[in-house]
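=== How it folds ===
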Amino acid sequence: MGKDKRFNIYLPPGYADGSDAYPVLYMLHGTGGNENQWMPDLGLDKAADKLISEERIRPMIIVTPVFDFSYGINTEIKGSYGDYITKDLVAFVDKHFRTLASRENRYIGGLSMGGFAALNNAFQHPDLYSKVGGHSPALWMDYWADTGDLKDWLYPDEAARKTRDPLSLAETLTFDNLSVFLDSGKNDGYRFYEGSELLYNKLLQKGTDVQYHLWEGEHTKDYWSSHVEDYLLFFGGK
């Protein structure tokens, strides 16, 4: 995109002193967030330390990139953020860190806007990721409260929506060997539990390996921070 972008990276215990290669988890922030939202703000790095020390997850590398208010897709208005995530970022991390550079060992997740981005990119690039998590994912139905011009550039027409909306992609694509984790709070103010449940049912009908959790909570930091271990157990559980 012709610009520098930041990311935080978590390297598992022992990385600096060894030669092992590791799986990689990409976790994407929500609207208004940045590379710090998952770690340190939500404590994803501390949760990883804990679960690795308890031998409940595999040691892994975690990457939290900033991708602005873009929904992680290619648009004329925002730029080529889909290519940035799936091409530039993945290639850079695989080149500069000791990764297990295969789809079986590469995962992607995100919260809210980042959940949309993770699902969109995993669905469109099943050759890159074997697991995807949508945590309170911004799956818009017909409820666009307090979103400004979001709908105008995210879904400018039905043709664009069919190629971008994870709910539409779930109808036209197949997801062999892709594991999907969806969750939302029962009191999510944006009602993203509606889109999550619909996506869950669409994927279930296709025989996709999918799970959906409707937990207590809202669209808040407290909700996501209380479930970071659940997310890591999905991505890296033994």
The mean pLDDT is 96.
